[in-house]
Design a protein that fits this description.
Strand content: 35-45%
Order of helices and strands: EHHEEEEHEEEEH
Low-confidence stretches: none
Number of helices: 4
Structural class: alpha+beta
Radius of gyration: 18 Å
Distance between the termini: 14 Å
Shape: elongated
Largest sheet: 5 strands, mixed
Strand order of the largest sheet: 5-8-9-7-6
Helix content: 25-40%
Number of strands: 9
Length: 147
């Protein structure tokens, strides 16, 4: 299958790491904290570090994986689409932040930035995929639609 679009995003924003390190620093400087508490702090840092959002488009549909939450790719077939659009959005105001976000009949998968592609589905729901290249993602989806 020919891949028309592929993108992987990670939490690489400096401010995310500053917030995490400052909030977890007391765990390591307070002597009364147990090894268990410190392991939880380290585990949280490792978890945030390994999170990644993978999005691919090929003739079978849009495939996505929010690793390590999703161990396998999930697919949205083109028959399920009503429409899609590259948009600019407010992650905090529209979805309550970054990550996997649920709001009413919508869901968002976003890692960074405020741009993405919103897909409206036949079941009345919509899914937003944050992207650093939303126009390229929408173009790949349009190319498949025309086939």
């Amino acid at each position: 299958m020919r891949c028309l679009f592929e993108e992987t995003q990670r939490f690489t924003q400096w401010w995310v790491w500053v917030i995490l390190l400052f909030s977890l620093a007391p765990l390591f400087y307070v002597e009364t904290n147990s090894l268990y508490v410190k392991l939880i702090g380290v585990s949280l840092l490792v978890f945030i570090y390994i999170i990644k959002l993978n999005v691919k488009v090929d003739n079978n549909g849009l495939h996505y994986q929010f690793f390590p939450i999703h161990m396998k790719y999930r697919t949205i077939k083109f028959e399920e689409f009503i429409k899609f659009e590259a948009i600019t959005y407010s992650p905090i105001m529209d979805y309550g932040g970054w990550g996997i976000r649920h709001r009413f009949k919508s869901k968002a998968y976003n890692i960074k930035g405020n741009r993405g592609v919103k897909i409206h589905l036949k079941n009345g729901k919509n899914i937003l995929f944050g992207s650093q290249h939303p126009e390229a993602l929408a173009k790949a989806l349009e190319e498949i639609r025309k086939q």
